[in-house]
Amino acid sequence: MGAVLAFTKKLWCIRKQLIILLTPLLLLPLLFALPVKEGKCLFVVLLMAIFWCTEALPLAITALLPICLFPTLGILPSKKVCPQYLLDTNFLFLSGLIMASAIEEWNLHRRIALKVLMLVGVKPAWLIMGMMITTSSLSMWLSNTATTAMMLPIANAILESLFGDLQVLKENCKIKDEPDGKTTVKLHALTSEKQILTMEDGKDGQEQFDGRSPVEIRAEAQYQLKVWKGFMICIPYAASIGGTATLTGTAPNLILVGQMKSYFPDCDIINFGSWFIFAFPLMVLFLLLGWIWITFLYGALNTRLCVAKQDERATMEAKAKAVIEEDYKKLGPMNFAERSIAFFFIIFAVLLFTRDPKFFPGWERFFNKGYVSDAVTAVIIVSILFFFPSQRPSFNWWLDFRSPNTQYVPLVSWKKVQDSVPWNIILLLGGGFAMAKGCEESGLAVWIGKHLQPLAEVPPGLAVLLITAFVACFTEFASNTATIIIFLPVIAELALNIQINPLYFMIPATIGCSFAFMLPAATPPNSIAFASGHLMVKDMVKTGAVMNILGILAVSLAVNTWGMHLFGLSTFPDWAFPVNTTTAITDPQNLTVRHFNTTV
């Protein structure tokens, strides 16, 4: 038995190498069981999918496999594969990351976060709402990981001012009666508190007698610990929700746009403005539902039990408010750099939104049709950041020859961009676009779509729920980027075969990829919150399961209401016909525009 256990441990140590060596061998029968080109493409797709899910190779390196495998297997020539890694969608994403780097460089995001928290107040329920609003708003433009990493320390500082030291709180949850009938409570002394405390030899901390019964103290401490968990868990969830509201907020949104351009070149429905009009109300709705669920589950709606006495509660809330205000004061007044970044950020968002918002003519019409994209707009704005000064220009400097001749510092430097931009995501996007191109030109997507024909019997509204739920469950075990890369081509071909607008399935699947709420390892924000030590796996599973259900229902509602009218989802569009030429020849009925009932 011991030898078997030792051998198993050795296998576990080399598990990644075994996956890399054995997976191609196990997938070899595909090359002979399917038509030649489709079989080769499926071999590459499944190989990449397994490597992505197991992380046997780094995600970015797996994304580069199409460059070597597609040409050598005769699926696509390299001159068609390589350009997929630098589409205009990649440049839009890169521009968003550069803008986020500039915002972080000058601490504008922290100023925004603290200002919002000052406005919402320090009642637990309202603080949780403030945390979720701030986190989601920042996550629309910054990375989900960076936003979570910034917000968690702020939340911890506020919670310590409200409830004291976390370790002492945990000890009070297990408090018992002393032999003399009195209850000894260990308190955490803050520098601003004026308390008379009695120190005990050989013990850390301070103790004082409390007239309350052990049951009351234990109940209050348990309740406060419960509220603490609610604060910790709402931040990564809000970051994941906020990233869905903009195209640059998370990678799956941009993968959808890139694959749409590859599969359906004539489709120009989705851009920054139209996506924001659809996804922002959905984000607000989901945030509201999530806030209600989290505050209900963790007791933050019942503020009376946070502190037993009214005067103590008022004192602690004042301390929490003082912590926020003190952090805000440390930032000082807004300097020239912060105001400049805020100005260019607003211009960045407004220009992207108004280029072609669909419901009114955008400024794109002043240029040649089809020449200007979201990437062009974004690159223009972020390029300015590299030479715009971070200090107010002074005309006196030209006249005062004794003033120091120091070079001006721009709002963002290339070194800062190199250090802060996750370049692996750029390669991951390119790998997804290359995989989609291979599936399209090899005929694999059509082959898979034909074998999914039995799903045509499922009502479209129910199919949306099932697709979103499946993707949301799958992304708990794989990165959201890898998940959407794998499934979007299949979902697109499924929609074409049953003659439904491809966006009707692809949009819910894309947003569902961000609904990884149940496991700590599902997303980096979850991992950061879990690593704080305040949460257990069962907390995330219990909270995240309902969050997933709420998200799936919210997406279904959005797609079947305002999304239906915004994107014209009730009809099979003209831009989808040229792609489905094979089916159109075999089934003349494909050439008719079919309306369908989307009632769930």
Automatic annotation (TrEMBL):
The species this protein was found in: Synaphobranchus kaupii (Kaup's arrowtooth eel)
Alphabetized UniProt keyword annotations: Ion transport, Membrane, Sodium, Sodium transport, Transmembrane, Transmembrane helix, Transport
Pfam families named in the record: Na_sulph_symp
Membrane topology: Multi-pass membrane protein
GO cellular component: plasma membrane
Compartments it resides in: Membrane
Classification via InterPro entries: SLC13A/DASS
Residues passing through the membrane, by range: 43-73, 85-103, 123-142, 269-294, 336-354, 366-388, 462-491, 543-562
Family recorded in the similarity comment: Belongs to the SLC13A/DASS transporter (TC 2.A.47) family. NADC subfamily.
Keyword Transmembrane: yes
Record's protein name: Solute carrier family 13 member 3
Major localization class: membrane
PANTHER family according to UniProt: NA(+)_DICARBOXYLATE COTRANSPORTER 3 (PTHR10283:SF62), SOLUTE CARRIER FAMILY 13 MEMBER (PTHR10283)
Molecular-function GO term, any one: sodium:dicarboxylate symporter activity
